[in-house]
Amino acid sequence: MTAAADIRYHVTGMDCPSCAAKIEEATRRVEGVVDVKVSLASQTMSLAVDDPSARLPAVEQAVTSLGYRLARVEGRQGDDETPDLSHVTPAYRRALWIVVFLNVGYGMVEIAGSLLAGSQALQADALDFVGDGAISFLGLIAIGWGLAARARAALLQGVFLGLLGLGVIGSTFYRVFVDHEPQTLLMGGFALAACAVNVAAASVLIPHREGDANMRAVWLFSRNDALGNLAVVLAAVAVWWLQSPWPDLVVAFVVASLFLHGAWSIVHDARQDLARARRA
């Protein structure tokens, strides 16, 4: 039996733990893949395959069909890793920077909107925007960095995002004990605007996706983010209908909890990457 070879890729396009999970699941389905680990923190995928020349084209097809981009990492595992990023064109980089600014910029706007509307769900949704933008930002600036440097940056980012998430959970708990009903028109308006921003971000990326499967992936990413925005809109309607702040608080708890799970995934992956870099 041929010994499994260890292969590493740089992954472009991940912005949440579910992205990493989807890539792992698709890769495991490829025959000959012995093991696979996707790190959201360092934006890398490590796998062991029994016959690289035969298996890797299928692996690459499985991942790129989901809408992500792969660049083979050459060299030893550690700070000397040098991914081939020739496919990441200047136009594609510009598109990613636009997506970063859209996410972070509207996240800041939505934070202000959440304070004006007194909505915890809107605040949690704003946090999701900031988190997506921050992860994409790290993926862009850290493309040429070594594994250890990427892991340290991701660890700091994960801790920071986790603290933001805990802040939203804490302020939501405070609202539980303070009778305060959010302004539903403002709440719904900002959430609908968030949907428009998600559509704009998807539109920027569409020209850089190749093939029907990748076009579908852009739609799926946009749809998943828009579902969170829709949840805030429905919460606003429920608050108005029931004359109760509880729908707003429940949605805030759910969104913030998912965000905290993402921050924990970043920290967990970053610690594993740091350990691997030290061993290299």
* Largest sheet report: 5 strands, antiparallel
State the share of residues found in helices, binned by percent: 55-70%
Q: Which class of the largest domain in CATH terms?
A: Mainly Alpha
Element-level helix/strand string: EHEEHEEHHHHHH
Count of spatially separate domains: 2
Treating each run of at least 4 consecutive H or I residues as one helix, how many helices?
8
Radius of gyration: 20 Å
User: How would you classify the helix and strand content by structural class?
Assistant: alpha+beta
Average pLDDT, rounded to a whole number, is: 81
Please state the second-level CATH architecture of the largest domain.
Up-down Bundle
Low-pLDDT segments: 211-216
DSSP E strands, number: 5
- Overall shape: it is elongated
C-alpha termini separation: 27 Å
Order of strands in the sheet with most strands:
2-3-1-4-5
Strand content: 5-15%
Please give the oligomerization state of what you see.
Answer: single chain
Say what the CATH topology of the largest domain is: Alpha-lytic protease prodomain-like
Relevant terms:
5 strands; Alpha-Beta Plaits; five-stranded antiparallel sheet; 8 helices; Cation transporter; alpha+beta; 2 domains; 280 residues; Alpha-lytic protease prodomain-like
